[in-house]
Amino acid sequence: QVGEENDEEEEEIEQVQPQLYSVEQEFDFKSFIARFAQKNIIRPYGILFGNYEKNSKTTNHYIIKMFHRIAVDHDLPAILFQATIFRVFQRIWNSLKLKPDDQSLRETAKFAKFILSKFMKVATTN
Questions:
Q1: Are 63 and 49 spatial neighbours (Cβ–Cβ below 8 Å)?
Q2: Do residues 56 and 16 touch, judged by C-beta distance below 8 A?
Q3: What DSSP assignment string belongs to 86-104?
Q4: How far apart are CA 109 and CA 98, in angstroms?
Q5: φ, ψ at 18 (rounded to 5°)
Q6: DSSP secondary structure string for all residues of 21-70
Q7: How many CB atoms lie within 10 A of CB 96?
Q8: What's this model's pTM, rounded to 2 decimal places?
Q9: For the segment 38-72, what is each residue's pLDDT rounded down to a tens digit?
Q10: For 79-122, how does the pLDDT look when each residue is reduced to its tens digit (9 = 90+)?
Q11: How far apart are CA 121 and CA 91, in angstroms?
Q12: How far apart are CA 70 and CA 81, in angstroms?
């Protein structure tokens, strides 16, 4: 009888366990990135970018990648029209003069030129 009671208890425990279901959902990456296109989000990126000399090349790459996604993929370059970011671009161009073979600086300077050209275009109409 004791063994039968234990078997019944185990069956009850097994029956109480909930069944888990997995549901696939499509992830909209563009909408996800769009949530980052806000000044209060970009500002910390700008502060981190301000330390580009101390950052790893990987960190700087990811900062520029985020800037690129916002400016190009979402067509919102104006959100990067910030004096702090422009000053970093200026320092990067100066660093590139000293290290013209540094590929990461070249890529960043190329992006900086793109953003600055967008700024100049907007500045002529305002």
A1: yes
A2: no
A3: HHHHHHHHHHHHH-TT-HH
A4: 13
A5: -75, 150
A6: --------HHHHHHTT-SHHHHHHHHHHHTTTTTS-HHHHHHHHHHHHII
A7: 17
A8: 0.73
A9: 888 899 999 999 999 999 999 999 999 999 999 99
A10: 999 999 999 999 999 999 999 999 999 999 999 999 999 999 99
A11: 22
A12: 12
Residue 71: is it exposed, middle or buried by C-beta count within 10 angstroms (0-12/13-18/19+)?
Answer: buried
SS3 assignment, position 75: coil
DSSP designation for 17: S
71, 118 in Cβ contact below 8 A? Answer: yes
Examine the pLDDT at 1 and tell me if it is beyond 80: no
pLDDT greater than 70 at residue 16? no
Angstrom distances, CA of residue 83 to CA of 13, 14, 26, 109, 114: 64, 63, 38, 16, 16
Q: Is the pLDDT of residue 10 over 70?
A: no
pLDDT at 4 over 60: no
